[in-house]
Amino acid sequence: MIRCLPTNLTDIDVYHLIRKWITGGLSNVMHRVNRSGIDFFKRLYYNKEAKKVTVLTTDHRITHVVGVDFNSLYPSVMSSEPHKFIKYTGGKMCIYGSQTGKIMGDTDHQKQTILRIINSKKRFTQEGRLFIAEVKGHIQEDYLKDFINFPPILRNYEFTTDERTIGSYMYSHMKDNTIKTDQKQRKLTNLSSTMGEYMAFSSYYLWFLIDDCHFIIDDVKQIVLFNKHDQFNSFIKEYTKNRIEAKLDENKGQEQFFKIVMNSSYGSDGMNTEKYHKVKIMNRRQTERAIRSNSFMDEQKISDDSCIVQMNPEHCSCKTPLQVAFF
Q1: Does the first or last residue of the chain, that is N or C, have fewer Cβ atoms within 10 Å of its Cβ?
Q2: In what side-by-side order are the strands of the sheet with 296-303?
Q3: Which InterPro entries match (predicted)?
């Protein structure tokens, strides 16, 4: 492809792999009660011998509760701007292009091939290959204490909200606040391992886990290979400059315009079209026909002969390069 720009996925199995592991939605918060001037900071401590995690209350009282958000996260990710902190692919984060191959780890030889690609020293050069790998793994136990307060594996994980799984503190908190317990939930969760499951990671994320978080790969299932590009760089630099100028001029309208254009040009690639609903205005006869359909969801009358009808389509299509939004 020209300049390795991204194209839409044509492999349905790769689509389902990426769609399943795109993170998002509600997050699982470990400590939900933090009251300024009342509660104390808590730290998690991992006892390697007993293999238990203990919550320790420190002597430091909470005085402020701060919400942290990233500034221009999407533009930063897709800019491919060189930075000395980036040690992979020539000092910049490249963007996923088109799929160039796939290797299934069905045999020992194939598994070794996948591991060689993941661990290749070329990742520190411009020749580093971008991929999405489905692996099992864990943080090396000797280093768990360094990451126990913020486990570095962020993935949507399904778990049961029973006392054994979430602990007596959270279980009691949910009970006291009439939140349903003892049921399955799927939330974005901080993990120190893949919990015995195969989970998919982008090349940059997996390299970070291996090189900085002492992540050990226990097994590999498959790897999907992509070419890479940096063609969004000039676009992001220009629009970032325009946004800064608008902010300095106190032109909030223009500032929001440039922000939304940059965010949507990246974030829209990961939107889940499987959850799109069709909403139509129908007359009475069309509404009656729609209600009998298996895809009918809801209707609301807006006049004597018109209704707004919501339908759940039986089919969907992904018209964006989903791999661009995966990490």
Answers
A1: N
A2: 278-283, 306-311, 296-303
A3: DNA-dir_DNA_pol_B, DNA-dir_DNA_pol_B_mt/vir, DNA/RNA_pol_sf
Domain ranges of the chain: 278-311
- DSSP per-residue string spanning 208-230: HHHHHS-EEEEEEEEEEEEEEE-
How far CA 282 is from CA of 231, 277, 278, in Å, comes to 45, 15, 12
Cα 269 to Cα 271: distance, rounded to the nearest angstrom: 6
Q: What pLDDT does 54 receive?
A: 85
Task: Kindly state the DSSP code that residue 298 receives in the 8-state scheme.
Answer: E
The kind and range of the H/E element at 175 are helix 163-176
For the stretch 145-202, pLDDT in tens is 999 988 999 988 888 999 988 888 788 888 898 888 999 988 888 899 999 999 999 9
Q: Residue 219 forms beta bridges with which residues?
A: 136
Name 200's Cβ contacts closer than 8 Å, sequence gap at least 6: 17, 18, 20, 21, 132, 133, 134, 135, 326
Helix (H) or strand (E) holding 98: strand 95-104
What pTM was estimated for this model as a whole? 0.82
